[in-house]
């Protein structure tokens, strides 16, 4: 939970173009990409028409879940979006769950959900233009009457921001709450004389159990739920943008 509210720390700096800072979020992101690649290679090794291996069954269950999710939310004609939604889900879930390993959650960095939300916004805009043309897209801002122009523009801009802040706020809020409780439990341990020190390492008994339960909720449960909500909103916004 370290670093909450301080932003992502710089892991190292590339000595090009005057120095490019590589933050811990970027490093963790690439580690997740490598981990997912290795997992995919493992799960899809030696595939057969009739699955007999547990890893193939697990892989097919996940693919079936995502395909069903896309078809139910967007419709069958959007089935080609399943790989994108699967990638978004996996990346969002693992990006939140890395905090269980003591790493900083990727989704606690506002740049990450904002980037995903902007990708969704680009897709929304693309399908709106595809459906009604460039002229129709801009006319839509003055619909149903011209005085609605400022509100419609504000609504358009608010879409990616609301998506980004929803995920960022829930993940960061949970991390902040857990950190505050963790600090409070240290004070409780000292108050009831359950704080010890061995070899320069402080041990607060009250911190041994409650933070673990909170971590399961905020990091595991909340992280998965927020990833699912983000993916669902992406599907709803994108499919509704194409009126054709």
Write the topology of this structure.
Elements: E1 10-14, E2 20-23, H1 24-43, H2 54-74, H3 82-97, H4 111-139, H5 149-191, E3 195-198, E4 201-204, H6 210-241
Antiparallel strand pairs: 1-2, 3-4
Helix pairs in contact: 1-3, 2-3, 2-6, 3-6, 4-5, 4-6, 5-6
Features:
disordered N terminus; two-stranded antiparallel sheet; 244 residues; mainly alpha; 6 helices; single chain; globular
Can you walk through the features of this model?
- This protein has six helices and four strands, in the order E-E-H-H-H-H-H-E-E-H.
- It is globular.
- It has one domain (10-241).
- It has a two-stranded antiparallel ribbon with strand order 1-2.
- By secondary structure, the chain is mainly alpha-helical.
Concise account of the structure shown:
With 244 residues, the protein is mainly alpha-helical. The protein is built from six helices and four strands.
**Beta-strand fraction estimate:** 5-15%
Strand order, largest beta sheet:
1-2
The shape is: globular
Overall average residue pLDDT: 82
Number of domains: 1
Number of strands: 4
- Indicate the percent of residues in helices: 55-70%
Distance between the termini: 46 Å
Low-confidence parts = 1-5
Secondary-structure element order, as H and E? Answer: EEHHHHHEEH
Q: Tell me the Rg in angstroms.
A: 22 Å
The total of helices stands at 6
The main sheet comes to: 2 strands, antiparallel
Class per helix and strand makeup: mainly alpha
């Amino acid at each position: 939970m370290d670093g909450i509210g301080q932003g992502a720390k710089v892991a190292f700096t590339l000595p090009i173009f005057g120095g490019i800072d590589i933050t811990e979020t970027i490093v963790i992101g690439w580690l997740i990409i490598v981990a997912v690649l290795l997992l995919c290679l493992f799960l899809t090794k030696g595939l057969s028409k009739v699955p007999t291996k547990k890893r193939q069954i697990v892989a097919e269950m996940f693919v079936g879940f995502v395909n069903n999710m896309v078809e139910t939310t967007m419709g069958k004609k959007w089935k080609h979006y399943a790989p994108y939604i699967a990638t978004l889900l996996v990346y969002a879930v693992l990006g939140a769950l890395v905090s269980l390993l003591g790493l900083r959650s990727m989704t606690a960095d506002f740049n990450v959900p904002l980037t995903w939300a902007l990708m969704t916004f680009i897709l929304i805009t693309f399908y709106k233009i595809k459906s009604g043309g460039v002229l129709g897209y801009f006319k839509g801002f003055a619909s149903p009457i011209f005085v609605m122009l400022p509100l419609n523009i504000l609504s358009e801009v608010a879409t990616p921001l609301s998506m980004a802040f929803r995920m960022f706020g829930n993940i960061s809020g949970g991390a902040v709450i857990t950190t505050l409780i963790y600090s409070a439990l240290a004070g409780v341990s000292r108050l009831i004389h359950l704080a010890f020190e061995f070899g320069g390492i402080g041990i607060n008994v009250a911190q041994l159990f409650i933070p673990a339960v909170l971590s399961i909720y905020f990091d595991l449960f909340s992280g998965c739920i927020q990833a699912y909500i983000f993916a669902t909103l992406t599907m709803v916004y994108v499919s509704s943008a194409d009126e054709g």
